[in-house]
Amino acid sequence: MPADEPAAAGGERSDAAEVRRTRREAKACGWLLIAGGLLFTGALLCVGLASQDLPTSVSLLEWAGRHRGALALADEGLAFAVAGYTVALVLLYRRLRQRSPIASLVGVVVHGVGAVGFVSATLALGRLVYPVSTVSVSEQGALLSAAQVFGGIHFAAIALGASIVAFGVALGGRPMIGLSLAVGVLQVAGSYFAGTTPVWLLATALVSWLLWSMVVGRLVLAGRAGRPAGVRSRLWSGDPEGAARGGG
What is the pTM for the complete model shown? Predict the structure, then answer.
C-alpha cells in the first residue's frame, strides 16, 4: 500500500544505519585488539627483560636508574594498552553475549579485575622512573614500588589467562578453544616477572598472547566473531533490505 512506503523506506534507512554502526564497532574492536596486544607485548617484554638482572643489582634504585629508558617505555605502553584493550574486550563482549552470555561475561569481568593489576603496575612504574619535582625516592619507597609493579603484573597475568580461556569458549570451535586454553595456561606460567621467569618462557607467553589477539582481531574484522545483541542476522550479513522485508 502507498501509505506503507514511507514507513518501509524509513525502516530500511534505520537498518542501514545499524549496519554501518556495527561495522564501525567491528573495526574498532579488531584494531584495538591488535594494537593493544602489540603494546602489551612490547611493554611487558621491557619489564621482563629488565627484571633479569634484578637479583644481582646493588639496590632497587640503582636497578631502576640503569633501566630507566626501558621502564619508561613500559610505563607509557602499559597506560595506552590497558585503555585500548579494555575497550576492545567490552566491544567483543557485545558481539558474543547473544551466542554465549555466561562465558563472554566471565571473560570481560575477569579482564576488568585483572586490569586493576596493570593500572597498579603502571602507577608504580611511574614513581620509579619519573621524579616528582625535588622529591627523591628512598630505597624503601623503591622497594614498595617494585613490589607493586611485579605483584600487579603477576595478578593481572593470571586474570588475563582466565579471561582468554573464557573468551575462547565464547568464540566457540575446537581450534579456538584449544588455542585459548594453551595461551591462557602460558599467561599463568609466565606471570612471575621478578627475575625468576626464564626469558624464553616470558617471551613465549607474551608472543602467544599477541598471536591470540591478532587472530581474534582478524575474526572480528572479517565479521566472523558473533554479532552484537539486538542486530538481526540479515543486518549482520549486510542485507538491510532483506531484514526489512523478512523481519530478520
Answer: 0.81
